User: Fold these one by one.
Assistant:
Number 1:
Amino acid sequence: MENATYDVKIWSTRKYKGKSGTTYTVRWKVGKKAWPETFPTSALADSFRSELKTALNRGEAFSLTTGRPISWTKREEVSWYAFVCRYVDDHWKGVSGNHRKDRARILTDATEALWKKTAGKPQRDLIRKALQAWSYNAEHRDTDKPADIASAIHWIEQNTVPLSAFEDNATTRAVLARVSERKDGTRVAARSAIKAKRVLSHLFDYAVECGHLKVNPLSQVKWKAPKVSQELDQTSVPNPQQVRAMVDAIATQRPSGPRLKAFFSTLYLSALRPEEAVNLKWSAVHLQPRVWNPEQEQWCDPDPEEDWGQLIVREVTPDVGKRWTDSGRQRDRRQPKGRAENESRPVPCSPRLSRILRAHRDEFGEGPDGLVFFGVRGHQLATGVYRQAWHRARKTVFTKEQQESTLAQVPYDLRRACVSTWLSEGISPAQVAAWAGHSQEVLLRVYAKCIDGNEERDKRRGTKGFEGF
């Protein structure tokens, strides 16, 4: 029988005592794959295991897809919840931790619009935690769970609509409406709504591929995508004096401030993304060597005019959380954005930044594994450390009105300020795009106003080549 087998083994129920209570997991094997099902009580677990054994004793074949007896598959359509779990499993490998995390959140939002009934429904926050942290996480779904989580999942399994419900366009519209809202009912940013629709479209395409749906239901409804402003909000970009004040304020914070001065200076002077800077290693920092000054009898920095170096961005480590990375570490490890594996991006290191980095190395040395920036305890720089330092500096440096605005809201705005400055100074967009790790198309779309502002200067430059005519 296609996609089914008689090779089935049912193990004894596993009891787990956790901090939040006791759970009972029924485990069985279909072909080469083991299947677990966790219940909040032993009675529910025993009942489920008994049904499995009854089917096995009757000589029924079991589905390799669902792990259940074929007769169960025939009498029950695949539910939204069961299919999402399969989709997550089949699209887990080769995907970044950030995408896994965002996908779980979006599918959790969608699930909230797909209940068959609400009787006995667990609390909303518990349902969301159960779905995001366990069910829609391929690595953790089958791990031991607190009793309240297991109970919530058991309710969810019984109470999501079948995929056939999407034959009704009203169901599709309800899901689109839900993923376009935050938990409190307010509208999400346009970019987030479009991303959610993209995730759902990919899932429905897979449902069509698996034969559960005839067409992608999103193609059957009209949905007007929110308008997304691609241009940079220039009010968020700090000027050089504001950046200097922020960096100086951060440097006074103890104990991390002094070592964060070079970190934020690097974001501003080289347009590195924070996840690129936290993983920058000294082996990727190429500075001019110091020169011996016989008059002063000491080593000195090179002449400022010649003191150009280079930074090589080889790998980034976005902070996505331990549950979402293949390594089980807090930070994922990825190639630079928009780059193929093992491809790097060179970025110029200006004389000003060269001096800052040399002083940083003199004072703090090298971090673990040769890291340029690291915490006071000798570990890789934590996201919370530099974000808190940034927010404290905003309160110190900016007026109340500025604090309530978008001005320098996040450290990433230093990168935007650097790219804006490069373009304003007349550096070609192609060169800026290469340094910043953007495509030229994205650069011209996002930073169009930074380029347009130089029209008068460029017109004057354009006349020089015709002198003598």
Note: Residues 4-220 form one domain.
Number 2:
Amino acid sequence: MEHEVFVPVPAERLREALADPARVARAVPGLQQDAGAEPVTGRLKVRVGSHSITYRGSLRISGRDDGSYAVEGDATEARGTGTVKLTLTITVRDADGGCTVTFSGTAAADGRVTELPPDAVASAATRLLSRFAEHLGAVEGPGETPGGQEPEDPQAAELPTPPTPPTPPEVPPSSLPERFEDAGGPPAEAAHARRTMIGRSAEEVDHAPPRGRYAPVPAPQTISPNQTLRWAAPMAAAALASAIVVTRVLRKRR
């Protein structure tokens, strides 16, 4: 197999990334690294057409004297017995506006992947390599910022002066008096009450009981014992007289 990818970053940047296993692990798309293991070790889900296969394995990259990089990898299906062995050579060359990354080598596999169409398997492999090269040019190393730019010195950067907050408009003082004593006259309800009593003397007006919601609630009327006896006495006399008359009538009939 052979596949070539253009990456719009300098070739030296990709060479530095390939020499750092931690950056290589971050560039593998979809790799779930195992805690405490080598950087390029973990689980990787590969989608082939409408199927997906999850592999568990590791990848090793080493530099060569000619400037290329040797890649060796092996993995096993997470849910099966199929295996994959990979041997690749990665070459990085300068190009206008970036660099080209060339992958060449062989891969051997068995298990579920052999049951899928060869064209779909080849397409999935080239897509995985292309995304790996693109991610490799985007990952940052220690002290780097996105795009390969040097980090700015925070002390050298001038902070913008915050804008002055606008002055709130002055609100004119109210022309109404704050207290009744300052107004020099009675409140509106009292004045209305005095106007409704035109024709009465000043003494009657000043001493008249308040009306409306300020009028006092009258106390409930109570019936004294004298009033009850005043009604009970005539009723008792009438009842006694009626009893005497009935008694005399009965005697005459006998």
Note: The first strand starts at residue 2 and ends at 7.
Number 3:
Amino acid sequence: MTTTAQFREAVDRGTVRALADQFDEPDWMVQKRLEALEAVEALDFPPVIQTPGRKWTDLESLDFEALVDPLSQPAESQRSGGDAVEVLSMDAALERLPALVQEYYGSVIDTLDNRLIALATALRSGGTVIHVPEGVDAGTVKIETAMEGRSRLGYTLVVAEPNSSVTVADRRSSSDEVEDSRYYGGVTEVVAEENATVNYGSLQEFDDHTYAYTKSQGTADTYATVNWLEGNLGSQLRKSEIGTTLAGDGSETKTVGAFFGREDQHFDLDARVWHRGEHTTADLVTRGVVDDQARSVYEGTQDVGQDAWDTSSYQRENTLMLSDRSEADASPKLIINNHDTEASHSATVGQVNHRDLFYMTSSGVPEETARNMLVEGFFVPVLEEMDVEALRNDFEVGVTERLDT
């Protein structure tokens, strides 16, 4: 595989400018790209859980730069929304909403946050901007991206003005036509202004050759709500970071995650909330299944700031192992700097209940059917939390397909 030095020879400032020219980007954004390119090698990879003698997810051994083909990132993205909301490609947004893009681009996630964010910033191909005007209930906005080539580096920005609301259903997939390893990198920034509500749902169904890293982060103003739903079914290695800063008083967030890993898939999922305003509420809920030699790693962090009075923060993570060869680890954390807090966290890892399985088989249910029914039942609590109906239905179908193969 190509070394980093070879990557630097192949990708230079001219490459970045050629990408920017494709989308007729303004000087300030070109400079963002160039700054990120220069910083890539000096930045650390995204943080992963480590214990003495072991790093739970090894990102450094993967040469992400070699997986990226900067000037050839074929992907078909389809976008749809109602008349009251603007759903634009990045180049269209820079033409129609230049001030908004400049104000909010990189405002939630630092473009130099880590090595992979900088890589995505420098070599990003297009993107999507969703703008919900004040007082508008935009309904559901759909984004569908089918990756066809070796790489895709995407970006999504959602800005919901005061007293507005929107639900985003974001589907990501890839074809099986490319047999070599490939890479998907994505950044999603959500800004919910006063009393606005953003529900952002994503479902990834990449093929087994894809390595994927995404960071999704939002900020909620006074009485605003940012909710996340993430379903993970595909990819070879999946590293995901989701977080919300509850900046305004009375703001809320809910993160619902579900995954099903099989064969030798590896999922590393990170959920965080930063309580900074008063009277804020958070609920982090994740459920997943690992089979065969699949592995899951989960880290959840509830960070309560010194001025975050009257905080309510809850976290639950449950993983079901269907194989003795599968692995699952969870590391929930509480960081509390204000005593006026009600918070809890829990994590469980286990196998199919043998008593339930015995009861069902002794009642005449075939063992495989009984096991599948128990797995489907295991997902019910988290499926009930999924507010994006279309993605919930698709995730259920994906689970059924995995159980039937």
Note: Residues 267 and 296 are 5 Å apart (CA to CA).
Number 4:
Amino acid sequence: MIETIPSFGLGTFRVDAAKTTEAVKSALNIGYRHIDTAQYYNNEAAVGQGVRDSGIARDEVWVTTKVWWERLSRDALIASLKDSHTKLDIGTIDLALVHWPSPKGAVPIAETLAALQEAQQLGLIRHYGVSNFTAPLLEEALAAPGGKDIVTNQIEVSPFLANRSLVDATQKSGVKVTAYMPLGEGRAHKDMTLKAIAAKHGVTPAQVTFAWLLARDIVVLSASTNPAHQQSNWDAQKLKLDADDIAQIDALDEGRRNANPSFAPKW
């Protein structure tokens, strides 16, 4: 049984349900052991099918899903996770995240955490965490009953949004950072700095980006339905960047978000 969130995973945001099952299956057969989905993605059933079809033992795969911000009250959250549990159909879900914090604290974080603990007791989930929490919101969550068991804060991190203060605050609190949109919505593929570093090492700009994140002790979510690209992304774990490479990538930070919906907290 995997007890710690694996450092390299497959993200399924914007992956059509029809393609998700094969994408999950191929990734698991390459060696991935961390699959990330969400209720909002509308592909949980396909993710579960891919896990079952892969032939990989269930206890060797870590599956994360997320509860949408409109369903964070006690009854709504339990109902939501029962729905996810049914759709995934893989037994107990390894990790459930609060997808976005409740806007303006409409649902107290203590209520949500209590509901997540109840979900654990019901056998719906094994672990819980948060996503898109600012440093003050994370601090509030950690101080609430059950907060000490938050395992990750999943946030946007890329070479163009290093998100350094939030990453540092999260890691100093003992919570893992998981990065989504690590390629900056595809910008990394075309960036001249990343392409030059990739050429130096004989790899791809995506591999350079993932290696940079892993060097910061950040869990990476890579999204691809193409088995060859999945393999290439997976191989990024072998790449070691030097200090000059890292300094060049650090200099790309613009502090500009891609994910900043109207209900997002004030960053």
Note: Residues 74-88 form the longest helix (15 residues).
